[in-house]
Design brief:
Structural class: mainly beta
Shape: flat
CATH architecture of the largest domain: Sandwich
Bound molecules: 2-acetamido-2-deoxy-beta-D-glucopyranose
Strand content: 35-45%
Largest sheet: 5 strands, mixed
């Protein structure tokens, strides 16, 4: 073994001076040598620990190091034979082994012990290399309202692997955060050394106002005592706040000498917070017991002669036997057994017996006691809230609304007679009462028509009174009963302006032709939604809101002279369950003999797109037209072309005019010829209406082509202007270049060489 101590020994020597010199006892071989080694030593190895007190004079022996008694080997230790120093060869972990017991001897080669054994105890000095740990990551606790401030309801546990009873394992607990922070940000207090959690005095006051809910606390545990440094760990504490069930108990009456199996359950207490121990004290001591669930028992028979009353105190405590709240008090009264015969009062007329009458004579007297009733009970309704009773607006006066029942606890028939009245909710006299004397039942009946508009609901208060004068306390709250009546609105079904409808059309009628308009008899007061029920051929369509009935397509398959009946349904827009229907009979006519004539196109009009809220007025054939015969009224419809039907909309204005508008938001700009079918008395004309669709300008008007204004350039003049401008620019460029060239030439004229610049220009 060859060691080089020169370089490595300096820090080790310093260490040794600090730690272990005073403990070495060089002369006394048998005394223990104590050496301390720092845990996790970070310097060089071997680390020289202490000089062994080897005798100087015995030089020929060899030093032998072994594990102490009960230790197998010397471990990471060795002795430098030259210097006689004990050394350690690697870093030590106190948490793995805290102490090493060694033994040093000086022996000859044949094993003869010259010196020793010298025991050496090496202690590993702790370093704070262990992080504290909570026993749980999340703690959950139930906290009852009414818990005393300062009484711990949760015990946090944490451990630290460092050497016990040193600052390295000296733990402190803190609350880092409380959520929510209401009603106070510090509802709780955590004992820093013990980790016990309790309500703070402030928390105790505000907890009763807090809603049931939970608080979440972030708690910390840290080593190194109160020093700022150290290792730390955190955990979460969920505290759920629960209602206080620790409520006063009623007195318990127990019969003496009760023959029941014991322990006999008599009452129950309950602390709603978590982890509770119940404790019972009896004053004077008695046979009572509380179990872990808070059930109270009597454990044996009671004797009234020994003790008539006990006062029990039940406590809810935490593990440290501290009361969570004030103890509950419970009186136990021991009842007497009925074991004494009643004694007759010394009253009554004297009974006289003649002198010297024979003995063993007896008689039994019967006394009749009549208890007379007084009217000390007010009549009461059996039910104080009746309804709500729903009544339709159209029920007739006289209808029964409700039957109320009242009772009277008096016995005397005269005292049970009752009087009823409507006390409130009947200002209009809408309701009335009817009752049979003595029956105890009263009927509330309708006396007038109900009106939903006037009052959608009624609260009728009926009062009952005793006919005879009442003795004692007055009538209680059950002397009145409230009947709630809800009025249901009645809306008449919608009515149409005709019972049935009829229209005649030629079989050649195109799609979109207006047949007739169906409307309500009172269109002002209600809005209807129209639909066709059984238009099985699909010939017709109805405009849902306006009620306009039109041909939906060409009447293919219809025979002149035939009839086609469909049912039109009208529903109230506000009350869709209300509806009515009417039949619509269509008579098909022969197609007009002459084909539909085309009139000369109407003068064009302009409409701009995207669609604005104006259109083009289309007039029927003019009066002077011989075709029209000067008669109206005319019907107007769009031609059967589907594109026309999609893009345009035609609304009749009056008998001679209609209004043409764009149906789509955007219609391609350009000239459009819209075929409009005008009909009258089975005669038809096709009227081509010419409309110019243009783009809208910002005012929503047609961007019309403007005629060429004076002085505005034509195409040709524009080209001329362009050419002229270019020519002028060229001219100026030539001028500038020439000028630059001349100026340059002037400069270049000075030196000897000159360049013929002129040619390049
Ligand atoms: C009550 O309503 C009915 C119809 O429901 C009516 O005939 C009668 O006149 C109304 N009576 C009063 C007093 O308004
Ligand atoms: C529609 O219903 C009415 C009444 O029920 C009936 O008279 C008529 O023939 C029906 N029309 C069609 C096309 O089925
Ligand atoms: C029909 O309406 C047009 C356009 O509003 C109007 O010029 C014409 O006088 C009206 N005709 C009748 C008979 O009301």
């Amino acid at each position: 073994m060859s060691l080089r101590p020169v370089l490595t020994m300096v820090p080790a020597w310093l260490w040794l001076l600090c730690l272990s010199t005073p403990q070495t006892l060089p002369k006394a071989q048998s005394a223990d040598l104590h050496v301390e080694v720092p845990e996790n030593y970070g310097g060089n190895f071997p680390l020289y620990l202490t000089k062994l007190p080897l005798p100087r004079e015995v030089a020929e022996g060899q030093v032998v190091l072994s594990g102490g008694p009960g230790m197998a080997a010397e471990g990471p230790f060795a002795v430098d034979p030259e210097s006689g120093f004990l050394l350690v060869t690697k870093a030590l972990d106190r948490e793995q082994q805290a102490e090493y017991q060694l033994q040093v001897t000086l022996e000859t080669e044949d094993g003869h012990v010259l010196w020793g054994p010298q025991p050496v105890l090496v202690r590993v000095k702790d370093e704070n290399d262990q992080v504290p740990h909570f026993s749980q990551a999340i703690y959950r606790a139930r906290l009852s309202k009414g818990t005393r401030p300062g009484t711990p309801f949760l015990f946090l546990e944490a451990s630290d692997g460092d050497e016990p009873d040193t600052v390295n394992s000296d733990l402190r607990f803190h609350i880092l955060n409380q959520a929510p922070a209401q009603p106070s940000p510090d509802m709780f207090q955590l004992e820093p050394r013990l980790g016990v959690l309790a309500l703070s005095p402030k928390g105790s006051i505000s907890l009763d106002h807090a809603l049931e809910g939970s608080y979440q606390l972030l708690v910390q545990v840290k080593d190194m005592g109160d020093q700022a440094s150290g290792h730390q760990a955190t955990a979460t504490v969920d505290v759920s706040v629960v209602e206080n069930t620790w409520v006063p108990l009623e007195t318990i009456h127990l019969t003496e000498n009760l023959k029941v199996p014991y322990p006999h359950h008599m009452a129950q207490v309950h602390w709603s917070g978590g982890d509770v121990l119940y404790h019972l004290e009896s004053q004077p001591p008695g046979p009572f017991h509380v179990d872990a669930e808070g059930k109270l028992y009597v454990t044996g028979e009671l004797d009234r002669e020994a003790q008539t009353e006990y006062l029990l105190q039940v406590r809810a405590q935490n593990f440290r036997r501290e009361d969570y709240a004030e103890p509950l008090e419970l009186h136990v009264v021991v009842l007497d057994e009925n074991d004494n015969a009643p004694v007759c009062p010394p009253r009554g007329p004297p009974i006289s017996i003649p002198e010297l009458s024979p003995p063993g004579l007896s008689n039994t007297c019967e006394l009749t006691i009549t208890v007379t009733d007084i009217n000390d009970h007010a009549p009461e309704f059996t039910t104080s809230q009746i309804g709500p009773v729903s009544l339709s607006e159209d029920v007739e006066p006289g209808t029964l609304v409700a039957t109320l029942t009242a009772t009277d606890a008096d016995l005397e028939p005269a005292f049970t007679l009752m009087d009823f009245a409507v006390e409130a909710g009947n200002t209009e006299g809408t309701f009335g009462l009817e009752w049979e004397p003595n029956s105890g039942h009263v009927q509330l009946r309708l006396q007038k028509n109900l009106s939903y508009e006037a009052a959608p609901s009624h609260e009728v208060v009926v009062v009952v009174r005793s006919v005879e004068e009442l003795v004692g306390p007055g009538p209680g709250p059950r002397a009145t009963a409230t009947v709630t009546v809800l009025v249901e609105r009645v809306i008449p079904p919608p009515k149409l302006d005709q019972e049935s409808y009829e229209a005649s059309v030629p079989v050649s009628t195109p799609a979109g032709f207006l047949l007739l308009t169906i409307q309500a008899s009172d269109p002002m007061s209600r809005t209807l939604r129209f639909s066709l029920v059984n238009d099985s051929e699909g010939w017709l369509c109805i405009e849902e809101v306006s009620g306009e009935v039109r041909t939906a397509q060409s009447l293919q398959g219809a025979q002149a002279g035939d009839m086609y009946t469909v049912l039109v349904e009208a529903r109230d827009a506000d009350e869709p369950r209300l509806s009515t229907s009417a039949s619509l009979v269509i008579h098909f006519l022969k197609a007009p003999p002459s084909p539909a004539l085309t009139l000369a196109p109407m003068p064009s009009s302009h409409l701009c797109t995207p669609r604005q809220d104006y259109g083009v007025v289309v007039s029927g054939p003019s009066k002077d037209s011989d075709l029209a015969g000067g008669h109206g009224p005319y019907s107007f419809a769009l031609g059967p072309n589907p594109t026309v039907q999609r893009d345009w909309r035609l609304q009749p204005l009056n008998g001679s005019h209609a209004y043409l508008t764009l149906a789509l938001h955007w219609v391609e700009p350009g000239e459009h010829i819209i075929p409009v079918v005008v009909s009258h008395d089975a005669r038809m004309w096709q009227l081509p209406v010419r409309v110019i669709v243009c783009r809208c300008n910002t005012e929503g008007q047609c961007m019309r082509k403007v005629g060429r204004m004076k002085g505005m350039p034509t195409k040709l003049s524009a080209v001329g202007v362009l050419v002229g401008t270019l020519a002028a620019i060229g001219f100026f460029l030539i001028l500038i270049f020439t000028h630059l060239a001349l100026a340059r030439k002037k400069d270049l004229d000075q030196p000897a060489d000159s360049m013929p610049l002129k040619d390049t220009v």
